[in-house]
Write a structure and sequence with these properties.
The structure is a homodimer of 459-residue chains. Chain A is α/β, with parallel strands linked by helices. Helices cover 35% and strands 24% of the residues of chain A. Chain A has 14 helices and 15 strands. In chain A, the strands form two sheets. Chain A has an eight-stranded mixed beta sheet, with helices on both faces. A seven-stranded mixed beta sheet of chain A has the order 1-10-12-11-13-15-14, with helices on both faces.
């Protein structure tokens, strides 16, 4: 298959004499990648990662096993200059977590602690529930009004293809527990920030400005949140919670990277990748094993086609994204002197790319237009705007002036699975995963074979 | 609404002078029930049961709370002669249950012990896995060949509207663990007998001919079974299992019943109902809170319409069906002297009735034809045959000669939820639940207002 790809390319490509190919040649090569890269082994790669490594919680031995896997996978894909770049960070790990209704209607509820949740005493806490139908209702609660109570934020999230409802609802998880604690709450439960109706809570990090204010914080699965709301509608509810995570300030994670060195302008770097860590409740398949498999497979497809990119293509697997973008921030800081011309992360599941967005210098807009035209046969819509933020791990690079490319994925079912025990390999649709690889291979090749400036700020 | 129903009935019905109504009157009344019973409160009843009682594991205090609820609900529906009839049985309760892969690919797997599973030592057992792609492969294993091993039966179940795949696959759960133990296995894991792909294992009873042969037995969720199969494909796998249920031979459950006494032939009894117990992992909504809500609401619809059935309509909520049809067997034995002319159980979820089947005397076939004609506007297909077995709890009555009626429900999604943590109220579609009530009210009224013999054997 790969021989066929190379054989169909125009001889000029194989000679790779010119640092910049003529546009028709570049675009023909991109079209070939798009059409031939539709089975590049991403599915097998993702199967292997999620089967042999499984969950990869930040700064744990499981994440280390993920890095070992990543180094091997990058070598197997033919990347060079493979690096593992450590950085310090705290380690938060889940302990026991149980919730039960006490009193007239005794029953257990299914919860998962939020990342950076504080702990209850080992014997748990028992307290009445203060109900808030949404985040605004909690904001409106008077200071001190939650003293001795367990806040329950029953905020609902709707499905949105572009993921926008996570933008508007994520605050409940990130800021809700600290806000409730500031008003006296002894613990906080949230309705999962998710769109499914299975007994699988959605975890995710919550944020404390002051770790001395820490209280226990957990998500109820959506059916459990609805059950608790029905109980609250009948009268006062008392809960017993046991939530015993641990926190160690002295941990370590790392970023892993490898390259296809540029043949014409090696110092112009295009960074693509996904994040290596995952939450601990499942095998981190859609979040973000898929992003790793897609971007590494796209790089491999370019290499295996015999193409010689002018610019360097660097695949980065960031550590500890879920725990607070530790890897993305450390990476941007460590590489701020480099000329990273474009950065792109795949971190929105394994379903199809449906739209392109970007944030590049005006000189780069013709390249984005080429990408749009090339991806159209995959069903991808034109650039929405030139104000994209990029994935979480590339946003710090973008803030420093790197151009940003986003191959936006269809997120219709993403928040059914995101951060839950259900983020497992069986959820991947191979045809959709391969469409991603095709789109990434073509887009990355177009950018890497080009010479038009992309950065929004000089470095 | 109910006044309206009564007012539309022919005056002869309200006078209830004749013990047997003329056929056109009976059928007109049935059609009115069918069309007006479409919102009879079944949804609210099911919400209340599953919210205030939740799970109702056989022979536990939770099942007792379910009986208290049932007595109140029957009184509220206007039933009389309400009885609670206890019977002895053992109590099996879940303990700790964890499974983890040890060795090169360490990870946790999600399991749920099967009912009547034996226990591992508290510290667990660690043993290699013996893989069987299906039940036949386990049957073919040589005697003694599983000594010291954990059997893993990876038998797959397909979706079937009529539930027939549970008939062909249920044996894996019921008989697999004892069969594996007889060949030396120290424990058994099965792929859940279910059709979903969520991280929710399907529990259910397993059967031991000899309790001295007990070993631990649990179901993996479908994604976990697929994960374990992928690991097995890579080479030998060792698991550590901790499964610590308890067994007490001296427990008690009970059946609950109430009646609309017959106005013309009180001793001719039509038994309808569902089972009161549920598995412990969820709130027992589709299995079988729905059956209780449907049949009680159907009886109430008949009563509230001011109709006077000739025969007695008795609603029975059987205890301990899941644990081995203890209630159904005790009920048949205790009531064998009664003239139970027809028995019907609703125990296949909350989705629409789509087909009728029966097992009645030839003299009863014209009644079944009337039921078919009356339910046709609800989308119900005619009787499939006259050889129905009835639900689990009425099968013992059928074996003693009671006529059997089955209002078969669409089971397409039933085994996504059956015996899992996902059997919760949010899964109920109110329109479908109400269609059941309409079908049951019309069918039960037709049978109760009739005088044609239905029993297949005299009692």
């Amino acid at each position: 298959m790969r021989h066929t790809i190379a054989a169909t390319l125009v001889p000029a490509l194989l000679l790779a004499a010119a640092p910049v190919l003529a546009a028709p040649d570049r675009i023909a090569a991109a079209a070939t990648l798009r059409d031939k890269a539709l089975d590049t082994g991403a599915y097998a790669l993702l199967e292997d990662l999620t089967t042999t490594v499984g969950q990869r919680l930040a700064a744990t031995p499981a994440e280390q096993r993920g890095r070992d896997w990543a180094v091997k996978a990058m070598k197997a894909a033919g990347l060079v200059n493979i690096k593992v770049e450590p950085f310090p960070m705290p380690v938060w790990e889940r302990g026991i977590e149980t919730a039960e209704v006490v009193g007239a209607f005794p029953q257990k509820l299914t919860i998962a602690a939020l990342g950076y949740s504080g702990a209850t005493p080992a014997a748990g806490i028992t307290a009445p529930v203060a109900y808030f139908a949404d985040y605004a209702a909690l904001e409106a609660a008077a200071p001190g009004s939650l003293a001795g109570k367990i806040a329950f934020i029953d905020h609902r999230m709707m499905r949105a293809q572009d993921g926008s409802s996570y933008g508007t609802n994520g605050v409940v998880r990130r800021a809700g527990p600290a806000l409730a604690a500031s008003k006296g709450a002894v613990a906080t439960l949230i309705r999962s920030i998710g769109t499914d109706n299975h007994r699988n809570p959605h975890t995710g990090s919550t944020v404390w400005q002051d770790r001395k204010a820490l209280t226990a914080a957990a998500a109820l699965s959506v059916p459990d949140a609805e059950q608790l709301a029905r109980l609250v509608a009948r009268g006062p509810v008392t809960l017993k919670l046991v939530i015993t995570p641990t926190f160690n300030p002295d941990g370590q994670s790392a970023n892993v990277s490898g390259e296809i060195p540029g043949s014409g302008a090696r110092s112009e770097i295009i960074v693509i990748g996904g994040h290596l860590d995952s939450w601990d409740l499942a095998t981190g398949t859609i979040d973000d094993g898929a992003g790793m498999a897609i971007t590494l497979s796209a790089a491999r497809a370019i290499k295996d086609a015999g193409l010689k990119p002018r610019r360097t293509i660097r695949v980065v697997f960031w550590g500890a994204e879920e725990a607070g973008i530790w890897g993305g921030r450390a990476y941007a800081e460590a590489h701020k002197a480099e000329n990273i011309v474009l950065a792109a992360e795949s971190d929105f599941g394994a379903d199809r790319v449906w739209r392109v967005s970007s944030k590049v210098a005006e000189t780069g807009l013709p390249l984005i237009a080429e990408i749009n035209r090339t991806l159209a046969p995959l069903g991808v819509a034109p650039t929405r705007d030139n104000g994209a933020g990029g994935g979480a791990d590339v946003a710090p690079l973008g803030a420093m002036g790197a151009g940003i490319l986003e191959l936006e994925q269809d997120g219709t079912r993403y928040f059914d699975l995101h951060h839950t025990p259900d983020d497992t390999f069986d959820k991947v649709d191979k045809a959709q995963l391969d469409q991603n690889v095709a789109a990434w291979a073509a887009a990355v090749w177009l950018a890497a074979s080009d010479d038009r400036p992309l950065r929004t700020k000089a470095n």
